[in-house]
Amino acid sequence: MSEQIKPDPHRTGPLAGVRIIDLSQFVLGPYATQMLGDLGADVIKVEEPSGDRQRNSGKGPSKEMGPGYVAFNRNKRSVSLDLKTDEGRAALARLVETGDVFIHNMRPSAVARLGFSYAQVAAIKPDIVYVEAMGYDDDGPYAGLQAFDDLIQSASGACGLGQLVDPDAELRPLPSLLADKTCGLFAVIATLAALRHKEHTGEGQFVAVPMLETFTGFIMAEHLYGQTFVPPTGGFGFTTAITPHRKPFRTKDGYLTVMPANQMQSAKFMELGGLPGAYELERFTSKASGKEKVAEYYAMMSEAAASRTTEAWMALGAEHSIPVMRANRPTEIFDDAQLSRTLFEERTLGGEATYRAMKPGLRFSKTPAGIRRDPPGIGQDTDEVLAEAGITRPA
After folding, report:
1. What is 19-220+341-388's CATH number?
2. How far apart are CA 205 and CA 195, in angstroms?
3. Does residue 374 have an active-site annotation?
4. What topology is assigned to 249-326 in CATH?
5. Catalytic residue among 42, 100, 180, 381
6. Which segments of the chain have a pLDDT < 70?
């Protein structure tokens, strides 16, 4: 840890003192509220008696502790309430009175039927910051439709990004729940902005995070490219991002990504890989077109990369100021010298099973983010949280 960042053990995060009433499930909402919890907020996860439906995603130490749940639900306290009953809804209303933020990713019609639309919640707590992550902006024809990650990736154009590289590629979602997680990040940004407004004015407000509009703006920020102007000056696709050459090179024992900032750095890389004076070699200068020269350049870079091990290239890159980085397969990330030190932490879940937690990447010198609570069992904090609010557990 650098000398500039020395955590104060008496502070738990920049959002200490903020309470989040969290009705979210699956990925988007839980990812957002986990980040708010990492930053010190007291996150009250309100679950139905059967629990968040993500709990049994994948194999874990118990049916309610699958990896899909554990990855998104640390730094929370779980309260189990049956919101189909008057007693459960009354208890949630009392909890709302204690909260600063109310967040959910239910369809607006569904949350209204339970009695917790923005108007209904604001009637209980006028200064509440109410964050609603829905699929689609309510001003369009998709308003109220169900939304999942693949549906949002489909409508946003993300499924077709591969065709910007290879026109024959099939449409398919990017292999990550990228829409859910991206919109979760935007939900955090929106929450923090609304809390800032509340701090200055005392006003709460309704905050909408429509997935399709938010994610499309994110994924197409660079890829509108020539379609940015009217009339267009070109096609879709940020050229440096969609070149087919954009991939790691094979080394003697693995893979390496090389990003020379100038010709001098790339020439040095090829020299270190056994191709001195590469730009003057006949194999390069004889190429007639720019496209042919580009193809030969990457062929020479590939040949150079294959001459050494990944570890040797990492050392040479640092020595000669050439931007390089090992390209890890998912199975190799636990062995990465950086990640094994800064990201992964083994913790005990429920006093029994050991799990890998990924520590918050953000660092604060005065109010450090961190893991204070492991993912909770269904309703394990119900009595504690309700007692704090002066509520007797519903029958």
Report:
1. 3.40.50.10540
2. 9
3. no
4. formyl-coa transferase, domain 3 (3.30.1540)
5. 180
6. 1-11, 394-395
